[in-house]
Amino acid sequence: MIAIVDYGAGNLNSVKKAFDHLGAATVVTRQPAAVAAADRIVLPGVGHFSALSILDNGGLRDALLQDASAGKPFLGICLGMQWLFEGSEEAPECAGAGILAGRCHRFPSSVKSPHVGWNSLTVRGGSRLLRNVAPDSFVYYTHSYQAPVVAATTAQTEYGARFSAAVEQGNVFGVQFHPEKSSKVGLQILKNFCDADL
Fold first, then answer.
1. What is the pTM of this model?
2. Which end of the chain is more exposed for a tag (fewer CB within 10 A), N or C?
3. Is 78 known to be catalytic?
């Protein structure tokens, strides 16, 4: 069972439909007990980083961090990936998970923000989440803030500067793009997340 975390800021229906298409069992929830009972966790998200502060209410943040620390496969999508970092200058008062070092920041003024539409991935070898994803594959983005390139970065995208398109550290994965809106490439990535040998 995959728990899709509902904190009021995500493409929940689109994410669920993508997993349904793959035949994966899912539950959309904001209950820590349901998150703890799941085999895998997906933290989706669209919008302002401050929306993540809702995770601090009712024990959701603690449940997510505990499960991630225990080795349960965890996938952050868009805002959910940014949460894996220490925070974002979009909402300095809202702490991220701190699983990855660094903070998210706005795109340079030399490019239009938000970054919306299709862009290509530069994939590093050896990624489990990006298995069978062809080099320079295109995926769909919509975001105004970007995550830094760190040791855990497994794919980058260029838009004004290079930023982390995907990260992977142990059982924790994140993608800045929206796999549920990225056609066959996105479905392959979600299928990889569902695989037992992830």
1. 0.96
2. N
3. yes
